[in-house]
Amino acid sequence: MTSEAVRDLMLYGMLMVSAAGFYAMFYALGRMLGRPSIVTFSYLFAALQTLGALGMILPPYLDAFWKYLIAFSSAVYLFIPQGMWWVVTTFHEKEHAH
Amino acid sequence: MTQALPQGKLYESQKLALWYFWVALALFGAQVLFGLLAAWQYLDPNFLYGKLNFITNRMLHINAMIVWLLLGFMGGVYWFLPLELGREVVGIRLARFAFFTLIAAVGIVVLVYLLVQYGPGNAFTLWFITEGREYIEAPRWADFGIVAVMAIFLYNVVATALKAQRITGVVAVLMFDLVALAGLYTAGMHYTPNISMDQYFWWWVVHLWVEATWEVLVGSIMAMALMHLLGTPRRIVETWLYLEVALVFGTGILGLGHHYFWIGTPEYWLGLGGFFSALEPIPLVAMVVHAVYDAGMHRMQTVNQPALFWAIAQAFGNFIGAGVWGFMQTLPQINLYSHGTQLAPAHGHLAFFGAYVTAILTVIYMALHQVRRPELPRFDSKLWKWAFVLMVVGIFGMSAAMTIAGFTQTMVERAIGGSTWQAYIDAQQHPWFQNGMVWRFVFGVFFLVSYLVLLWDLVTIGKGEARTAKEVGAHD
Question: What is the predicted ipTM?
Answer without folding.
Answer: 0.91
